[in-house]
Amino acid sequence: MNSTDLIAVVVLGALFWLYRNLDSIKEFINDQLYGDDPSLGVNSNGTRDLAEVLKDNDKNYLVLYGSQTGTAEDYAKKFGKELTARFQLRVMVADLENYDFHSLNELPDNMPVSFVISTYGEGDFPDGSVNFEQYLNELDPDMLDNLRFSIFGLGNTTYEFFNGAARKALDKLQDAGARLIGTLGEGDDGAGTTDEDYLTWKEETIELLQNELDLHEDEDKQFESSFEYTALITIGNSTSLGEPSKQYLPNATLQYNAEGEQSGPFDLSQPYVAPITETKELFQSKDRNCIHTEFDISRSEVTYQTGDHLAIWPSNSDEAVSQFLRVFELDSETIFDLKAKDSTMKLPFLCPTTIGAVVRHYLEITGPISRQTLGLLVSYAPESIKEHIVTLSKDKSLFATEILASKFNLADALLSLNHGETWTGVPWLLLIEMLPKLSPRYYSISSSSLSEPNTIHATSIVENTPNDITGTNITGVTTNLLRNIQVIKNHDDAASLPVHYDLEGPRGLFANGQLPIHVRHSTFRLPKDISAPVIMIGPGTGVAPFRGFVRERCAEVKRDGEECLEKMGKMVLFYGSRDDDDYLYRNEWVEYAATLDAKFEIDVALSRVQEQKVYVQHRLAERQEEVSKLLQNGAYVYVCGDAKRMAKDVQHAIVNILSESKGLTEPEAQEIVKAMKVAGKYQEDIW
Ligand code: FAD
């Protein structure tokens, strides 16, 4: 072999090695570029200074969001995307959590800022925005006299402090001299109008921004993605097949502590894949389902307290995935990588990955669709229906009757609008950026951390109703997944399942009944003083945390004996169900009553066994005298379940009891309930 041959062999060898190790090389580059978490964008020099990051990345508009579950983040991104698409603004959309705000009054070119902030709990800021709230609290007058801003809040009128966080931000920013563009937008999830509220606010705000910033619209501008797409040919160890976080990829190693438990923290960025040790159907009736599920946390650092919430990370059903792939003519096997075009952008999911993994595990593809989503697809509508799609996307009431009333998801709607034919040419990157992330669903934990420190119980009613228009069922993502696991594990009647799931998960990660979970801590807690009486009101699955509360007190009695029982204040549970068939945990309450003796009582309202419907609020009213006596003795009131009607009806019943027993006017009694809420003596866990 001469020297030329030798060089050729070496070069070919090196090329072959490069090809074989492409994934590892990409992974190395990813690590260098993105540090610990490739799904997170980072700023060039890691700074938290807003003005500096905007300048470094040549941005001329800022959208800041505070999000608890991802909804505010989705709206912020939509808003930023629209400003870019229509006016070519170079928008930075950023989480309040990741920045400091001292330069907010000195933004480059005096750019305006739009805030999108959700409210959580009792008018609180989302967990990640506590730093922003603190900044607002410390503002002096005139500190923000250069700032122009607009603000959209996401809230729920069924809660006492509707849009509390956005309203507080508005007041504080204005007190510090900042000038509001337009009016405060207030999304109301309670009325189910968040989308329309957003559209109204957005239209008004954009019109004002056009004048303020002299913006001109480029109507022919096509969608431009914030990401660079690269097609790949091999699945490597760093390729996500739908793993819930990067710790579960084959090229990563899960961390364990000295006790051999999987290390956390477990939160919205990383779940624990928990084995399901027990799952059973709780309803007797055939037409509705409620699933009890027990997750084993003994081999992890996951902990919880009685009254906390369990987040379950779902994936989409086979039926929903294949319908979605079909309508857009997508190939689930396609492997690709994404790179953010600038360092302020976050990758929406783990990359590299496949289209199939993204559709199944990372995108919310089934819920109701919004007018704005349809509007974004207008350019790709088949010519024969384009005009109709334009009209639908602009006409609120037509959209409501034709799309929302039919309970279509995106794929259903597009197929129906195009007479069963597919939509070709919709960019995959547009779908990725347009659709919300598939987010975890929350469940009030129905076990007690004292009696079950190693397992977390959830009690979930299965969302499944027939849709006469599509001939299929409208199914909730998570609850049908839980039901699938229950049916398969217990060898029940699989033929009755309306939808099916890949229960093995990516690379078998969820095999034998495992699901990703994390715990969200709540403030829903039994009184520390065991002698305080407790009134619990929880119809349907609203009974979940009260099963936990009662099990907690039983465990305390077992631990501390007779003396504890003597000291214990009375616990009354007002429970409601339709009839005997859906009476949850019927036999268990008998056991609890045996342990707690006269200290525990369950009052059951079976709403459908007599002509006149009887609900928990009626039972409260019937027992007015006793309830009022318990309140006088310092009882804590707990309400859990339906936020839209039940919580209001119950509050009304308590106000009535207070006003009648104390001879107060209704507003005076309402003030007492308000004061009880502030003091933590009237707690709600409602959804
Ligand atoms: P999703 O997929 O989220 O669907 C939600 C609803 O929309 C369903 O009714 C579904 O049928 C409907 N839907 C789907 N597609 C469409 C469409 N295209 N058009 C119109 N409607 C559609 N629930 C419990 O059962 N037990 C609990 O203990 C409990 N605790 C909770 C605690 C908290 C703090 C919160 C916030 C919620 C709690 N929930 C509880 C509710 C729970 O989180 C879920 O919302 C519920 O289980 C539905 O989840 P899913 O994924 O099955 O349905």
From TrEMBL:
FMN binds at residues 67-72, 118-121, 154-163, 189. Its EC number is 1.6.2.4. Keywords: Cell membrane, Coiled coil, Endoplasmic reticulum, FAD, Flavoprotein, FMN, Lipid biosynthesis, Lipid metabolism, Membrane, Mitochondrion, Mitochondrion outer membrane, NADP, Oxidoreductase, Steroid biosynthesis, Steroid metabolism, Sterol biosynthesis, Sterol metabolism, Transmembrane, Transmembrane helix. Residues 61-206 form the Flavodoxin-like domain. Residues 199-226 form a coiled coil. It is found in: Endoplasmic reticulum membrane; Mitochondrion outer membrane; Cell membrane. It holds the Pfam family NAD_binding_1. Its main location: endoplasmic reticulum. It is a single-pass membrane protein. GO terms for biological process: ergosterol biosynthetic process. Residues 269-513 form the FAD-binding FR-type domain. GO terms for cellular component: cytosol; endoplasmic reticulum membrane; mitochondrial outer membrane; plasma membrane. FAD binds at R441, Y442, Y443, S444, T459, S460, I461, G476, V477, T478, T479, W687. One of its GO terms (molecular function) is flavin adenine dinucleotide binding. Its cofactor is FAD; FMN. It catalyses: 2 oxidized [cytochrome P450] + NADPH = 2 reduced [cytochrome P450] + NADP(+) + H(+). NADP(+) binds at R288, T541, S607, R608, K613, V614, Y615, V616, Q617, D649. Binds 1 FAD per monomer. Binds 1 FMN per monomer. This enzyme is required for electron transfer from NADP to cytochrome P450 in microsomes. It can also provide electron transfer to heme oxygenase and cytochrome B5. Involved in ergosterol biosynthesis. In the N-terminal section; belongs to the flavodoxin family. This is NADPH--cytochrome P450 reductase. It comes from Maudiozyma barnettii. The lineage of its organism: Eukaryota, Fungi, Dikarya, Ascomycota, Saccharomycotina.
